Hints:
The complex is a heterodimer.
Chain A: H1 7-12, H2 18-35, E1 41-42, E2 45-46, H3 49-56, H4 58-92, H5 95-106, H6 113-124, H7 129-136, H8 150-173, H9 178-186, H10 191-220, H11 223-228, H12 236-246, H13 250-289
Antiparallel strand pairs in A: 1-2
Helix pairs in contact in A: 4-8, 4-10, 6-8, 8-10, 9-10, 10-13, 12-13
Chain B: E1 11-22, E2 25-36, E3 40-44, H1 51-59, E4 66-71, E5 74-75, E6 86-89, H2 101-111, H3 116-129, H4 145-157, E7 163-167, H5 175-192, E8 195-200, H6 203-209, E9 212-217, E10 220-225, H7 227-232, H8 237-242, E11 247-256, E12 259-264, E13 267-270, E14 283-288, E15 294-296, E16 304-313, E17 318-324, E18 329-334, H9 337-342, E19 348-352, E20 358-361
Parallel strand pairs in B: 3-8, 3-9, 6-7, 7-8
Antiparallel strand pairs in B: 1-2, 1-4, 4-5, 9-10, 11-12, 11-14, 12-13, 14-20, 15-19, 16-17, 16-19, 17-18
Helix pairs in contact in B: 2-3, 2-4, 3-4
Amino acid sequence: MPTRRNPLRQLRELWPLIPACILLLLFYALPLLLLLPNSFATKNGWSGSIYVSVLGDSYYWIIIGRSFWIAGISTLLCLVLGYPVAYYLVRLVSSRFRRYAYMIVIAPLFTSAVIRAMAWVVILGRRGMLNEALLAADLVDSPLRILYSESAIVVGLVYIMIPFMVLTIAAVLENVDSTLEEAARDLGASPLVTFFKVTLPLTLPGVVAGAFLVFALSLSSYVTPALLGGGRLKVIATLIFEQFMRVFNWPLGTTIASVLLIIALLVIWAYNKALTHRFVAGRRGAAATL
Amino acid sequence: MRPSDFRMDEVIVRLERVEKRFDAIRAVDGVSFTVRRGEFVTLLGPSGCGKSTILRMIAGFEDPDAGHIEIDGIDVRDQPAHHRPVNMVFQSYALFPHLNVFDNVAFGLRRKKIASAEVEQRVKDYLHLVSLDNLDERYPSQLSGGQQQRVALARALVNRPKLLLLDEPLGALDLKLRRRMQVELKQLQRELQISFVYVTHDQDEALTLSDRIAVMNNGHILQVGRGREIYDRPQSLFVANFLGEANVLSGNVVSESGRFKAEIGGCLMPLGNVINPPVESGGVLFAIRPEHVRLSTEADVRKMRCLVEDKLFLGNGLVVYARNAARQLITVRNSDRALFDQLTPGQTVYVDWHSDDCSVLSE
């Protein structure tokens, strides 16, 4: 039975959070609060009419839908491509080369996102390396239109986000005792069954954390969609930028940003709830005694 | 069913000249042994002697570099771990933390696609067997060390393996619980008639549990036999010292009128049958257990004359340290209180032993 603790003492134990809280309050919550009234400021005084027009316009819903779709697909691809890399880093590579393998995974993060997106422009463009190669191999008759498409944005995002997924999963896998995998093999589970019955469930916290991270970063990323999506294929981040910096329609920009924030919070909440039900419920009993 | 299926002397596991290297280290260096049906064999040795590696090769987690392993008459070279008819109890138990007790124990049965009603029955039966009723819903982290141990045991046994491998399964338990689990383990093994290969560095555990013990060091099996045989007649210095205490005295084997004698510190002492008498009468080592040394204060020319150096009262035993003419220390352990009480340091005593209790050590 946990003993009831002194509330004052509990409050005192929050001190490590103070610096971060001050920073977030000053540079995140406060600007957000200052900006928020913009979305209610119309020519006819305060009203929610901008929200009504945004939510009632399919133009915005298409962009919102596309943004979530791109972020979701990128997250899924990062997971599918990143998990094996994490597994290799933790379980397979010899300890002598592990450090270098990690460095290779992290190295792209030291390059500017603009440069990395531009690299894909060079590769995917109409006269880019990929099309040149396809034409030379006689696989296509005319250059494929890959750049400035959703696919191009997804390719760019996956490329940029994959280290976050790999590192998050690897950190969790590192703490899963490999004897458990041996025990599963010993009890008659094939390598594949061992993965799905033991390794994956035990690394699920890493998968969830990595997915959150990549999803949030992808949804809010601006540079990659701007460069690889071109001017026409808009996502929310580029739309907000356009409203603030080109059209100078701050009320509309703020409204879209608020809608994005609310939907993102809803999605994360739903995702969290679904996972808690499906996977974490069984472990609650275990966690209770820790 | 063939009649041989019922034979107790049937070989379940055979290792032949098995070798395993890790980089430059020879972890297992030409090991051969067999385990028969229903037999309890212990691999006993210090940490790093290769005993766990042998277990891991039988289970299929490591591939031998040379030699071969047969399980139930089949060479398992190409058999992956999950197809081998053996199960293992890990030192860390390796219970799945995300599954409750029931699902942990049912894991192996479910892989075999056994009907759920039978799974349920068998899991219940084996949990009952290890005295763990009514804990099905608990998670491993909610169990004590001893309970986790029992779950690990049930999880392995429920599959009715041909062979159970146990890697220091009681190492993490406190002494009292370990003693109790030793007794239970032995009973369980007799009841189920499953062959056990048990790895430990604890000589008491090995002697308590095993039908046969294989003493290992540096990747070699030094001696295999029943606990008593190995204890009474160690063949090497390592075995003499690792399994219990021993007086190790240097001397020579001499032949006197067709019988071998041990010449130690200028005295000719009785020596039992020497299986491989040293060809040259060069120096050899003899081992005599402290409790096999007989002590008296009466002068006797056939015995070894020593001076008492010290004596210790240990509650359940009395220990006397004596030195012979060659200043070799001889430890005597007995329970003769009357004799013990009259000894004083510097006093002359005479020691000897039964000829069978003196072993000639190789190396």
